[in-house]
Each structure stands twice: as structure tokens, then as C-alpha cells.
Amino acid sequence: MARIAQSIRVEPARLPDHEREALARELFQVHDAIFAGTDLPTFANLVMAPPSEHSSLLLHRDETGRLVGYCTMHRFRRQIGGRTCSVLRAQSGLYKEFRGKNSNITFLMRQVMYHWLQHPLRPLYFFGVMLHPSSYAVLHRFSHRFWPAPGQDNRHPLAAKACELFASFNITPVSPDRPFIANLGILTREGKDDHQLWQNSTKPSDRFFLSVNPGYRQGDGLLALVPLSPLAVGHALVRWVKMRKQKRAR
């Protein structure tokens, strides 16, 4: 069974130029096997050198030392509703045979804690564009409160904040009547069997994602906003522990 043997955290900004360039090429091999539509320079700017306050990168390697996945977290400073806030954004990729173990959860939680130590009074949000049902499913599984979710509409209090953030990152919606769907030019490489699996899913989170973002196979992504508080992180941690116990009991 495929196993992640080592997970190492690095800060790209602290690496010498030649190491950062070599790592970007290694990361892009993983990314390009999972996603289409991005070239190496664009990917390197997104993952290795975004205009963020802080960036941290988690590298997953197998027993031979081969890179099999990554997760990067960037923190940006933004104004939301006239108040200075921190916004976390993430990119990740993991070969299919290594998935299903929530291998990035502890890394992401540590990045949230790191922010709170630096800026204890500054509100914190996670902001992302969900490109695939699997990404939205993880968000739905671990988030205590987020937008959009089944049963919500554009009158939800988080909708206006989400729209404000969308504009601050210069992301253009696909159309005025779909203001929370954007096409970033990144497509998930998905086989016919995988696509059919999601289409046949009866889970509420999967059905919701497919109903509001039917064009995900063409690169359409669904904006998502999650307020991150101690309660929210505690909720995610409890969910993670329960899932680990359930897997061990099988």
C-alpha cells in the first residue's frame, strides 16, 4: 500500500534561488499530473512567490524520497468590511494512491496557530476556489461555519464578505448572474470512472457542488469562505480525531 514516509515543512522565501527553482520544477511534476492548464512559470509564481505576508510549504515524500504531494499555505492582509483581516489561501496536490488520509490537516492547523501567535486580535479567514467536488467535500467535512453551503443563498452574511475578497484578488466571475463562480484556467485531470463516481454520489456536499458548479470539468471553480476561530479549529480537530479512530477500528 502506498505510504507517505516523510512530510517536511519549508519556507520558500528562505531558500536560495537555485534550490527554490529546483523545488518548483519538482513540485510542478506532481501538479501537472493532477491538473492541466498551468505552465511552470505561472505555477512557480502561485506556489513559490505570491505577494503574501507569509508562505509555508509541506512536502510529502515516499520511502524512496520521491515527491508524491505538497500543500502550500499563504497568508495575505486584506480589508474586509473596513477592518484589517488575514486571509489564508492554499494549493495542494497529491498522487491518487496516497490520498484518503487527510495528510495536510495538522500542517494547516499549525499555520492557523502560527497566525494567531503573530496577530491574536486580527480576524482570520480561509478563502479558496474549489475546483473539484473532492476539495469541497473536505471543506464541508471539517468546517464549522462556511459559505456557500447547502441551504444557504446570497443573502447569507458571509456572501458579501466573500464577494469583497473575490474582487481584492482580481478574480473575475464567469458571469454577472454567477458572481461566485470563476474560471482560473486550471482543470483537474479526471478519468471517466472518477467523473461517474462523483455524478452518482448521494452525499449532500457532492450534490450541492455539482448543482451550483456544473462546469467544474471546464475549470470553473466555486468560491468558498471560512471564518477561522478557536471554535472552528476545535471543530475540525474533533472531526479529524473521530475519523482517525473510525479508520483504526476497521
Please provide a written account of the structure.
26% of the residues are buried. Strand 4 and strand 5 (83-94) form a beta hairpin. The chain folds into two domains: 1-122, Aminopeptidase, CATH 3.40.630.30; 129-250, no CATH class. With 250 residues, the chain is of the alpha+beta class. The radius of gyration is 18 Å and the shape is globular. Strands 1-3-4-5-6-10-8-7 form an eight-stranded mixed beta sheet. It has eight helices and ten strands. It has helices at 17-34, 40-47, 105-118, 133-142, 157-168, 192-199, 204-212, 230-249, and strands spanning 6-10, 35-36, 54-61, 67-80, 83-94, 124-130, 173-175, 178-183, 187-188, 220-227.
Q: What attributes does this structure have?
A:
250 residues, alpha+beta, 2 domains, two-stranded antiparallel sheet, 8 helices, globular, 8-stranded mixed β-sheet, Aminopeptidase
List the helices and strands and how they pair.
Layout: E1 6-10, H1 17-34, E2 35-36, H2 40-47, E3 54-61, E4 67-80, E5 83-94, H3 105-118, E6 124-130, H4 133-142, H5 157-168, E7 173-175, E8 178-183, E9 187-188, H6 192-199, H7 204-212, E10 220-227, H8 230-249
Parallel strand pairs: 5-6
Antiparallel strand pairs: 1-3, 2-9, 3-4, 4-5, 6-10, 7-8, 8-10
Helix pairs in contact: 1-2, 4-7
